[in-house]
Amino acid sequence: MGDYFQTIVDLDATERDAQELGARVLDWLIADGIVAAERTDCVLGGDGYGHAPGPHFTKAVDDPDPVDLWTNGFHVQTGRTVFDSGQGDAGAATCPLCRTEIRLVDEVWEPIESAWDPFEGRFQDWAEDGGEGIVHCPSCARPSGIDRWNWEDDYYACGHLGFTFWGWAELTSDFTREIGRRLGDHRTVLLAGKL
Prior knowledge:
It is a single chain. This protein is α+β, with helices and mostly antiparallel strands. It contains 4 helices and 11 strands. It is 17% helix and 32% strand. A hairpin with a 6-residue loop joins strand 7 (134-136) and strand 8 (143-145). The chain is globular, with a radius of gyration of 17 Å.
């Protein structure tokens, strides 16, 4: 067993505008009946309170059957965060400068310890210490912030704003695009995972 979730991360939101953007999307979801206005104990993480699915939640998902789980709600998270897909780990990372893919696991999905060395402590530096989390690419040797790297299967995403749907059916691509549009056409990425 486990709790499944999907998180839409805004890659362009800044620390300064994350709260306002999060409130804008929440207001739209409530107005359209996709989530309920009242906060209840229906999500994991944060303070444990989120918004249960509203009467029109099917506008967001590909399966109209309601989910009957305790963790079945929507949560907005703001602040410097390294969002991840829960269980497992990324198989590869791609340098934002030279586009070289760095394999992080071998053919049987065992971690390649030396491949992880350039990333050691970089997430913590970015999220907790407020730094840039500079990674020197093993291929081109140029430095770039950890928040600019791309991760296989969108396993990680660094951002200041994320929207997590706990226990929902798969979100439709139209819905995820609409969230990006309502964020001012910001770039977004969808992480899916399980705890």
